[in-house]
Structures are given as C-alpha cells and as structure tokens.
C-alpha cells in the first residue's frame, strides 16, 4: 500500500503545486502550516498531520482523504466518513513498533478477507477525481456560484461546516476562488444547499471537474437555474421551442427584446435592470450565431405577430428580422394559426434540447412565470416531444411561414402609410 508521503508527493506533482503554494493556500484558508512542514510531510519526516490538516490537504489537492492515506479501493461520495475513519486509524498507528505494526497488518488482512475485499493494492499510478487543477477563472466562477447557492439556502459558513464536517472544506477560501474543492466536496455542498435537480448539479460539477472553461453565464448574478438552461442551450445540436406570448428570444431584435423584458419584468431573468436582462438575451443570440451547425426549430403562435408590445416601426423591423431568419438553412420557423388551428397543446411555452452524444437523453424545459422547470423524466420529455411533433405537422410549412410573415408585414406597413 502506498504511504501518505508518496501520495502527497504524487498529488503535488500532478497538480503542479509547490510546497510553498500549498502552504500558502491552506494558510489563507484558515489552516496555518509552513512550507517546511509540507516538505517534512512530503518526505516522510512528519507522519502525524491532524485530521483537520489531512482534510484540508485532500480538498486543496482534489483527492479523497482515503486515497491520500494510501487506500485505492474506498469509494467517494456517501462513504467519505468511512475514509476519514480509516485515515484516523492509519494516523493513530504512527510511532508503533514494527512488531505492533505487524500485528495490526494481520488484523486488517483478516478483516479484509472477512468482508470479501481484495488484498492490499499496489501503489496507484494516477490520482482519482480531477485530472488537472482548475484555472484561476474556473476557481473564481465555481466559488462565486457556490457562494450564491449558500446565500440562497440562507446558510452561514458555520452551518455548512457543521453539516459537512468541521475542517472538511475551507468554505471562505473556496467561495473566494483561492482553492479548488474536490468534486466530491462540491457534491456534498450541493446536497446541503438543497440542489437536487440532476441538470443543475451536473452544470456545477462540470465546472468543478474542470471539464469546461468558465462561461459568460457562470456568474452569481445569473440564477443557477437560468445558467443551467444557457449551458444546455449552448451544448445542444437541435433546439425545439414553442412560444405563445412573444417572439422567441433567440430571434428577437434588440428593440423588441427590450420591450418584451420591460413587459414581463427583468426580474424574470434574475436581473435588477432591463439593460442587464437584455445583455443576457444578446449573449445567447451571439452564441447561437457563432455556431451555424445548431438547428433551431421554432413554432410561434400567430397572435404574437399581432400583439403590440412596441411601436409599429419596431414591430415592422422585428417582422423583417423574422423573414430573414426564416431563410436561414439552420432555422425552421412555423406559425400556429389563430383561425381554425388543427392542434393547440395544453401547455405554455416550452423548449426541448437534443445533444450530440447519442447516449445523452433529451431535456425539456417548461418556461414558467418566475423560473424555468427542467424536465428529465423520459416519459414527461416524450410527452413534450409528441406535442411538438403535432405542432410541426399542423402548423405552416416553410413556404407558408414566409407568406404569413409577409402578410402581417404588409398589413403593418399600410397602417404606417408606407
């Protein structure tokens, strides 16, 4: 079994940390240790770190406590307490004589055989959890997001530390982006903060695992549910959306978007001002425009084309924009007629996302009054798919869409005397 010093040295090397950097990170996190002490731990001259220091080292180096003390088989997640207990036993053996250690090894061997566990493994070649340390921008984005979630849960730092175990994670240092918590720690924090939605948990964990760079929506000012929908939207290869009140945000002009936000209120996007909410809409549009491979399939209720939320001139420019979008090869725009519709679903606006990986299931999103509901249950998602399929075959074709748009454009032009 690899010993603590070997594991610590391997983790420091793989993560690219110097002893001085590690000592500085832990000291800033409220666990003061010196560079010399880290060096002694790394070389095996010191073998008895406190449990608080051990947990802090594991959190900073993005490994589990069990792995750090030399165990390759303990799982992460719900059994972390077992890892801590095993680590405590290992540390308590420090200083025993060779004969006592031989007796202890025999007891451990018998216990492992009794529980059907394999013999002691060889030293591991790699580090579990994250493969590389998080960049500064990733740490800051993750810390800011976790800070916002803790605030939303109305929990103090002390309450969080009590919930996950005193010393298990340096919450202030994590939230300030000074250290990167291990993904296992982030999972526990999400549970403490009441985050149970799989897409939202995965959104945060993808950043914690270093699987993606920090994006424009990875800021505390964007609510986590909204940031998750933006992240899903940017990963999607096909976007299907049905709107009954406004032109879909991805197809809006700046003037129309400002009016739509003003009517519904910027708070619906978790923003304090219309300008802040408008910036989010524009960022989404820019991301879509930058990827011509994404297919957007939009169904709009015809009443949206006649609803006056802006001046006639702005409405006319919005209709012109829709005519342009309808000609794009990756946009399929359809109109649900006001007169004698063949099918009207019993739902409000919704969106469906499909992803490039065949094994990744589609996700539906029901756009609510104050927030969106992400739907992953396969039966429920299929019901939304069936509704959209019925809409797609009972609404206007691409050619008919152009006719409807031009009809309303000409009607509006005549009212303006053009």
Architecture overview:
The longest helix is centred in the last third of the chain and has 18 residues. Helices cover 53% and strands 9% of the residues. It folds into three domains: 111 residues, 434 Repressor (Amino-terminal Domain) (Orthogonal Bundle), CATH 1.10.260; 73 residues, 434 Repressor (Amino-terminal Domain); 192 residues, Endonuclease, Chain A (2-Layer Sandwich), CATH 3.30.870. A hairpin with a 4-residue loop joins strand 5 and strand 6. It is built from 19 helices and six strands. With 418 residues, it is of the alpha/beta class. The N and C termini lie far apart (84 Å). It has a six-stranded mixed β-sheet with strand order 3-2-1-4-5-6, with helices on both faces.
Topology at a glance:
Blueprint: H1 4-15, H2 19-28, H3 35-43, H4 51-61, H5 65-68, H6 80-92, H7 98-114, H8 136-152, H9 157-164, H10 171-175, H11 183-192, H12 198-208, H13 224-235, E1 236-243, H14 254-264, H15 274-289, E2 295-301, H16 303-306, H17 312-326, E3 331-336, E4 350-355, E5 363-367, E6 372-375, H18 378-394, H19 398-415
Parallel strand pairs: 1-2, 2-3
Antiparallel strand pairs: 1-4, 4-5, 5-6
